[in-house]
Specification:
The protein is of the alpha/beta class and 511 residues long. Helix content is 46%, strand content 11%. The strands form 3 sheets. It has a 6-stranded mixed β-sheet. It has a 5-stranded parallel β-sheet with strand order 6-5-7-8-9, with helices on both faces. It has a two-stranded antiparallel ribbon with strand order 3-4.
Length: 511
Amino acid sequence: MDALSDLLSTPRPADLRDLFAADPARAERYVLSAGDLRIDYSKNLVDDAVLSALADTAQRSGVEARRDAMFAGEHINVAEDRAVGHVALRTPAGGEFIVDGVNVVPEVHEVLDSMAAFAERVRGDDRITHVVNIGIGGSDLGPAMVYEALRPYRHERLRCSFVSNVDGADIDSVLAGSDPASTLFIVASKTFGTIETLTNARTARAWLVGSLGEAAVADHFVAVSTNAERVAEFGIDTANMFGFWDWVGGRYSVDSAIGLSVMIAIGPQAFREFLDGFHTIDEHFRQTPLAENAPVVLAMIGVWYVNVLELDTKAVLPYSNDLARFPAYLQQLDMESNGKSVRLDGTPVTGQTGPIVWGEPGTNGQHAFYQLLHQGTRVTPVDFIGFAKAPHPYQEHHDLLMSNLFAQAEALAFGRENAAEPQRSFAGGRPSTMILAERLTPAVLGQLIALYEHIVHVQGTVWGVNSYDQWGVELGKELANKITPELTGEPSPASHDSSTNALIAWYRDHR
């Protein structure tokens, strides 16, 4: 983190109230446009000197070079010796993204075309009313979030459910309200070996076969996978297998075949508009100078908070009930990408890397955790998200929603003093970014996701970590595979620490 050394000595700016008083044009100058997004960052704890230092830090950290290397298909995922190619998933037909000497864009569109043909068949088949996506992590959070977010665009006959948790209550609740004859299952697993996904898939298969017989599997199951042998063994027709590539990480894959359930729900045309939204921000990120580059500016403000002001969390608060799953989606995107303590070269990091990301839709959160945001001892930077037009006919509701959005940002920034009743005082000085768009469309949702993807990329570059591996999930998996047979048979638990041995023994006695 050598590039951060000068930043650490940069003077901290004045209070937000003083900053606005000293610069009446601040609200006009500290605004960015990226695609359909209007991004007001004026209520952040930065001034011109800080922003200049942040831009210098980004440049010295090699943000431009690493960005260009990603778009060139270089193997910037050095731990796994892979390209990082999620931007290829939304590159228009006729475009170019080279991986190991091959333009992969035609392959991407071949898969998209196959998905579109299949989606149209399902949308035109009145027998299918329920689509169940079985996945976990990126193969669940992405499509589940997008399906909820694009509620107004969904097919009126079809509903989608998403099963990810190996807790049997998850799939039980989905199957309990389903008719086997009208249900289509999508099993999303690149290797077709993810234990949680395959456990749920086998349960769904047994449920279907119990009602319709073995032959029904081929008609009611499809796969998003690259392992044709395992897919065929399961009974799925490999003609209904949709692939993706090892240069696409799970948390970056909703715009790949992992989004098949979304394409079925909203239709191929809307899905392509979704991809176009991603591409709009990709081009903004690739071409815009650092000082006006939305992902870079927001990422560097985040670096300022994490590494200089030592603010270790970030709240994402969409004033849109349709974006209820968006904070959870970003939680995985950010924390799985940059929750690292080892640099690209294998040396330990020397400062903090990655904020704790959390959030909930407004206005629900206002009656829960906003108390801490306003008057707690911790300062939490906030990303607010809102839309000018409502996705419903209830204009009074939307006006009230948006008034709350703007009021909360104002209250956090400027507070209110009450010397007579200090418990009613609000310190203010609490930073926030306001991201607005006219309405939540497929294209705008794609733009929002891509904005945060590139924020994560920039911050990972500055911190010198690999944002595209996730070895931190492996140890728990390995130990779980060891413990599973110990819960029901031999050997008796004795090979773990004393606490774990006792826990396993208790479970064996009480299961």
